Amino acid sequence: MPPETAYHDALGHHFARHADVSPYNAYTDRPAMLELAGEVSGLRILDVGCGAGHYAAELLTRGADVVAVDGSSTLLDHARTRVGEQATLLLHDLEKPLDFAADASFDGVVCALVLHHVTRRAQLLTELRRVLRPGGWLLMSTTHPAADWQHFGGSYFAEDWVDLSLGGGPHSIRFQRMPLETFLGEAMSAGFTLERLVEPRPVPALREIDEPAYDRLHQKPSFLTVRLRRL
User: Fold this and answer.
1) How many angstroms separate the Cα of 2 from the Cα of each of 70, 145, 176, 221?
2) Where is 65: in which H helix or E strand?
3) Which run of H or E residues covers position 182?
């Protein structure tokens, strides 16, 4: 069965700590997504599935007006600690329409490592297009299909729900595998066009603290990151 979309309770606390320093989150996914965002000063940005607020905090320092939403009150508590009252933080189930947002009310949307957890992806993508102004951008990252294929085996084209252990500990996350054609095809069907596609490698700072992880992530893909434009 599909899981709860958000990370609650102990899993939420674990993820918040993990995202602070993880080679995957802190040194690979986040730098790539923020580089794709470019200049954001003065823009109104929606952070969808904001987690512990790492993206919101960075966007705020770059001058953006941020609305951040997540389905986990645990993670929103972490986000509130990180950004205080600087951003608007909302508890919202991403399986439901974004009824808190008016049409064309955002310049950009960040959706980092979220989409593969959502069961109603077509609905969410349609809603993201609705709340973006014409010409607005959507940044999304997901697990790399090749990495999932290598880890879980079976068919590259499988779209089954899988469980991934976090660091070999007691916590795991559940998400849906999808090939590249599904990931991009769903976004394009919702009314977006592709501007850039990046297969992120870790930033050089990781090499100073974890050289094996730096080398490994330069040899094997982990994430897929895209910048899309609302048609």
Assistant:
1) 18, 19, 8, 25
2) strand 65-70
3) helix 180-189
Rounded Cα–Cα distance for residues 79 and 55 (Å):
10
Tokens 């064309």, located at residue: 104
Helix (H, G, I), strand (E, B), or coil: what is residue 176? strand
Q: Output the pTM of the full model.
A: 0.95
CA 131, CA 46: separation in Å to the nearest integer?
9
Q: Which pair of tokens denotes residue 6?
A: 């958000």
Name the one residue in this structure whose structure tokens are 């976090």: 166
Given a contact cutoff of 8 angstroms between Cβ atoms, the answer to whether 57 and 34 are in contact is: no
Distance CA 123, CA 115 (A): 11
CA distance linking residue 143 with residue 201, whole number of Å: 13
Structural domain boundaries in the chain: 9-146+178-230
Tokens of 175: 């998400």
Q: Which residues pair with 162 in a beta bridge?
A: 175
9-146+178-230: what fold? Answer: Rossmann fold (3.40.50)
CA-to-CA distance for 173 and 6, rounded, in angstroms?
10
* Residue pLDDT, tens place only, 36-89: 999 999 999 999 999 999 999 999 999 999 999 999 999 999 999 999 999 999
